[in-house]
Specification:
The protein is of the alpha+beta class. 22% of the residues lie in helices and 30% in strands. It has two domains: 63 residues, Orthogonal Bundle (434 Repressor (Amino-terminal Domain)); 108 residues, Jelly Rolls (Sandwich), CATH 2.60.120. It has four helices and nine strands, in the order H-H-H-H-E-E-E-E-E-E-E-E-E. It has a six-stranded antiparallel β-sheet. It is globular.
């Protein structure tokens, strides 16, 4: 079973372990119950913002949905080992643009930051959905080009460029120049 398939399962397991009904989770997170059900049943590829809302509502870190072990010391991820991926989307589910997240800290328990390599597939739309969540993000472009809608501004970044932003501002990260891109992103979401 891949990590992608276990995100919904882990959410459901944590929710049931904490004796939280779907209705309670929907109310606590401010999300529609059908969206939560689709995430738990792996029928919907979630974006990062709903996962952060669910994590907060359940009283866990975002990384809890991605954790594979309980290593408390330093974690080294060798080249090629970050292939345990989680797919999120930045668009409605009918869109082809996706963000494929590869965790660089999946074995580190108790972490406060979420470092990822993210492959960004170009989309077919120019009307990107903006989202926000608590915390901060650092993004470094490894390959290709990206565009970031941030509030009312658009930032274009190319290989070697970086940006540090407040995640509470409505934003969207997508491929630039209608071509795939790869970024290093470190996300901090306060618990």
């Amino acid at each position: 079973m891949t990590v992608q398939k276990t995100v919904g399962v882990k959410i459901k397991q944590i929710r049931e372990m904490k004796k939280v009904s779907l209705e309670e989770l929907a109310e606590r997170s401010g999300m529609d119950i059908t969206i939560i059900q689709k995430i738990e049943q792996e029928k919907n590829i979630p974006s990062l913002a709903p996962l952060i809302k669910i994590a907060r509502a359940l009283g866990v870190r975002l990384g809890t949905f991605l954790d594979d072990s309980d290593a408390y010391g330093p974690v080294v991820v060798r080249s090629g080992e970050h292939q345990k991926g989680v797919r999120f989307t930045s668009q409605p589910s009918e869109s082809r643009e996706h963000l494929n997240f590869f965790s660089l800290a999946f074995d580190k328990a108790g972490r406060n930051m979420e470092p990822f390599i993210i492959d960004i597939e170009p989309g077919l739309q120019s009307d990107y959905m903006l989202s926000s969540h608590e915390g901060e993000e650092f993004i470094y472009v490894l390959d290709g080009a990206i565009e970031i809608n941030y509030g009312k501004e658009i930032y274009k970044l190319e290989k070697g460029d970086s940006i540090y932003l407040d995640s509470i501002v409505l934003h969207n990260v997508h491929a630039g120049n209608n071509q795939s891109a790869r970024i290093l992103a470190v996300i901090y979401a306060p618990f």
